[in-house]
Amino acid sequence: MISILYLLQIMNVQQYLIENGVKPSLQRIALMEYLLTYKTHPSVDEMYEALHEEIPTLSRTTVYNTMKLFVKHKVASLVSIEEKNARFDGNVSLHGHFACQKCNRLYDFSINDQLFNKKELISTLDNFTIEDIQIYCKGICKNCK
Fold it and tell me: If 0-12 CB within 10 Å is exposed, 13-18 middle and 19+ buried, where does residue 84 land?
C-alpha cells in the first residue's frame, strides 16, 4: 500500500519537474526521486539496475535520455570527473566534488565565497555566458587512507 507521505513526495517531484519544463512521466519521476534520495552521484547503469525491476518498461536508453533531458533543464548536473563514467547529481546548487581514486566514491563539498568567488570569475569572463561550473578534486578519501 502506498503511503500518503510517498504520494506527497511524488507530487512534489512531479511539480518540481513541471516547474522546470520537464513533462513528468512514471520513469522521469522515479529517476528524479532516485537522484534526490540517493546522493551517490549514480551512473546510468546504477540507476537502471536500481529501478528496472520496479519499472519493467525502463531501459538503459530511457535512463540515458532522461538524464540528458534533466541536465538540459538544469534539474540535474552531469559530473564528469571520470572520462569513462558519467555520473549525475540531483543537487544543482554550486558545490564541489571529491573523487576518491581508491574506492571511486564521490563526495560533495561546500563552496563558500572565500574558497570560490563567483562574481570575480564572472568579471574576468566579461561578455562570456557561463552555463556550467564544475569544481572537483581527486585523491584518497579519509576512509581509504
Answer: exposed
Q: At 21, phi and psi to the nearest 5?
A: 80, 20
Asked if the structure places residue 15 within a domain, the reply is: yes
**Under DSSP, is residue 140 helix (H, G, I), strand (E, B) or coil?**
coil
Q: How many domains does the chain divide into?
A: 2
Q: How far apart are CA 12 and CA 145, in angstroms?
A: 40
DSSP-assigned letter for residue 99: E
- 11 Cβ contact partners less than 8 Å away, ≥ 6 residues apart: none
**Which residues does residue 135 pair with via DSSP β-bridges, in sequence order?**
96
Residues constituting the chain? 145
Which residues constitute the domain of residue 37? 4-87
Per-residue pLDDT tens digits for 76-88: 999 987 777 889 9
> In terms of pLDDT, which residue wins out, 6 or 130?
130
* Strand stretches in 12-81, DSSP E: 77-79
Q: Please tell me whether residues 128 and 79 are part of one structural domain.
A: no
